[in-house]
Write a structure and sequence with these properties.
Blueprint: H1 9-16, H2 20-28, H3 39-46, H4 74-85, H5 98-103, H6 109-113, E1 120-131, E2 140-146, E3 149-155, H7 157-169, E4 172-182, E5 185-196
Length: 212
């Protein structure tokens, strides 16, 4: 780069000689937006360019352009950021399913934190920090995260046994429960948990074996 700016994805691959895996990770994160603001086509070509860093054989030209591919949705771009870097500037995954949550009667985490003791609530998001300490008599704890923040969760032993698989395996969950305010602490006592569909990790488009 000190010699001259990169002229495009192929020029970047030839001069940096990064392996295909890293090229695809950079494309997933949108690092090549200056060359191609279409992430999916950048992801298609990023893995193929490292194989072309050797001099061309006589009669061969550059790699053929990517086929027509659908542009990533905002939700897919958010999850692509998280997959590649662990952070995103394009939003929280739950933000993209907020209309669905509202149709199902779910409140945001910030709204739930303002509710009175014993209020029945429904909320959806990412289940995190799940744990069942051996000294807690079978009670399990965790947190639910959405685009507005987090709330602490408490699961009685029967609820934990009934909902454990969903909580551990689902990409996101929809919870029913009630607010508990006691001695200055705030928790949601969970009664029920079901799986909630959220955008999943984007994968490189499938290439036909033997073709670039």
């Amino acid at each position: 780069r000190d010699a001259r700016p990169f002229g495009g994805l192929e020029d970047f691959a030839r001069r940096t000689r990064l392996p295909a895996r890293l090229m695809e990770q950079l494309a997933t994160a949108g690092a090549f937006a200056a060359f191609d603001d279409h992430r999916r086509s950048a992801l298609w070509t990023a893995g193929a360019f490292p194989r072309s860093v050797q001099p061309y054989l006589p009669g061969l030209g550059s790699l053929s352009p990517a086929p027509e591919l659908p542009v990533m949705s905002p939700a897919e771009e958010t999850v692509a950021d998280l997959t590649a870097t662990g952070a995103s500037t394009t939003g929280h995954p739950v933000h993209h399913v907020r209309p669905l949550l509202e149709r199902r009667g779910a409140q945001t985490a910030s709204a739930v934190r303002a509710m009175a003791d014993q209020t029945r609530v429904r909320l959806g998001g990412l289940a995190k920090y799940l744990q069942r300490p051996p000294t807690a008599n079978g009670v399990a704890f965790g947190a639910l995260e959405d685009e507005t923040g987090m709330v602490n969760l408490v699961f009685s032993p029967p609820v934990w046994e009934r909902c454990r698989r969903v909580l551990l395996e689902a990409p996101a969950v929809l919870l029913d429960g009630h607010v508990e305010r006691e001695h200055g602490s705030f928790n949601v006592i969970v009664h029920r948990a079901v799986s909630l569909a959220v955008p999943t990790s984007p994968r490189p488009p499938r290439r036909v074996p033997g073709r670039r």
